[in-house]
Design brief:
Elements lengths: L2 H14 L3 E7 L2 E7 L1 H92 L5 H13 L7 H36 L17 H4 L3 H8 L3 H26 L10 E4 L2 E4 L6 E4 L2 E4 L5 E3 L4 E9 L3 E9 L2 E11 L6 E2 L4 E5 L9 E8 L2 E3 L1 H15 L1
Antiparallel strand pairs: 1-2, 3-6, 4-5, 6-13, 7-12, 8-9, 8-11, 9-10, 10-12, 10-13, 13-14
Length: 388
């Protein structure tokens, strides 16, 4: 660098940092200190160096702190990952141990469950014994359950028995439902309302359907609620079928004779004597002389004798407003006040009264009004099909 430039730089520095005088009083004396340009430059350089050092140290500390924070976060993430992995493995281990313990200790529990289910089914099936055709319908499923294939695994054998119980319950419920539906249809065929003969709400009997809440029944039977609900449903269907069946047994639904053919129907026809249209209030069955005539339902003989136009006649009161009449009989085999059963002989076929030949004139009355007997005969046939 040339001397001129050095001299010019020195003058610039002297202008920026002119010589300064510093006066300090000490001990009553005044002392003067002279701060030359060179001393000021040295002090400024020292301050700048110190500031730079502090900046460098601060930056280094911040970088170190950031590096430590990132490392800690990575460590925390790794620790959390392994903790989740350990927790998952522990949960799986606990589940496996629980299943193992359940398998090892479940045989007694499963056996007890099967016994309790069996007791509930026994209560249900005991009601089926009094229902016509029920035993025959369920016997194949019962035999199948009794001959269920065995297994070397005791738990598997118990599960097979439980499955057989499920199928038996399904069969019982299906039978009860189908029979109730067939009986309802039979009542409609006879022109009767099945609701008038079905059990009213809340009037269902039996221990299995007294508890309306399935959970309450499950507690009573000590079985699972789903099984108790199905038991209750089957018992309800069975109770309705049994009530309808009991009502049907009291109605005149049988045929009044096993021999002979229907020769004249109910309604308006040409009278065989006047040859004019006239109302025919019953069914005529043609047959051989002295063909047995049978009561179409249980009841009490309310009349046995001769009626004008009907000849030898028997009338049976079946109760609840139902009455049947058997006319043109050759002989009478019952007396008034006598109780008769369904299918019991009440007389023999003949041609007494206003008759053109050997036949039976059969009438059905409900609450004082003549009904079409063929509807009752068809309903009786359908009831019999429902029992088969």
């Amino acid at each position: 660098m040339s001397m001129k430039r050095i001299t010019r730089l020195r003058r610039s520095l002297e202008e920026l940092f002119p010589e300064r005088h510093l006066y300090v009083r000490s001990g009553g004396e005044m002392r003067a200190f002279v701060l030359t340009t060179s001393k000021q430059l040295m002090a400024a350089g020292a301050v700048a160096a110190a500031a730079l050092w502090m900046g460098v140290c601060t930056a280094a500390m911040m970088v170190n702190a950031m590096e430590l924070s990132a490392s800690d976060q990575e460590i925390a993430r790794t620790q959390a990952k392994y903790e989740r992995w350990i927790a998952d493995r522990q949960a799986r281990l606990n589940s496996a141990v629980a299943q193992l313990n359940a398998t090892n200790g479940s045989i007694d529990d499963l056996a007890l469950s099967v016994e309790k289910r069996h007791a509930a089914l026994a209560m249900l099936l005991s009601d089926y014994k009094s229902t016509p055709g029920a035993a025959e319908a369920l016997t194949p499923e019962i035999m199948k359950a009794a001959t269920e294939p065995s297994s070397s695994d005791p738990v598997r054998r118990i599960e097979l028995v439980r499955a057989s119980q499920e199928r038996l319950l399904d069969s019982a419920d299906s039978y009860a439902k189908n029979r109730a539906e067939r009986l309802r249809l039979a009542f409609r065929l006879a022109g009767l309302s099945p609701n008038a003969y079905a059990p009213k709400s809340g009037a269902l009997g039996g221990p299995l359907i007294e508890a309306k809440d399935p959970s309450a029944l499950a507690a009573v039977l000590d079985v699972e609620e789903s099984f108790a609900e199905r038991i209750q449903h089957a018992a309800t269907n069975l109770s309705e079928a049994r009530s309808l069946d009991a009502a049907a047994q009291k109605l005149p639904l049988s045929k009044p004779t096993t021999a002979g053919r229907q020769s004249s129907g109910f309604g308006v026809r040409f009278d065989p004597f006047t040859k004019r249209p006239a109302f025919h209030s019953g069914l005529d069955f043609a047959g051989g002389f002295m063909t047995p005539i049978l009561s179409t339902g249980p009841g009490v003989v309310s009349f046995a004798g001769v009626r004008s136009g009907y000849g030898n006649t028997v009338e049976v009161d079946h109760g609840n407003g139902f009455k049947t009449r058997y006319a043109h009989m050759q002989t009478i085999a019952v007396r008034p006040g006598q109780r008769v059963a369904v299918g019991q002989r009440v007389g023999a076929m003949g041609s007494t009264g206003r008759s053109t030949g050997v036949h039976l004139h059969y009438e059905v009355w409900v609450n004082g009004r003549a009904q079409n007997p063929s509807r009752f005969v068809k309903a009786g046939e359908y009831v019999q099909q429902a029992a088969d």
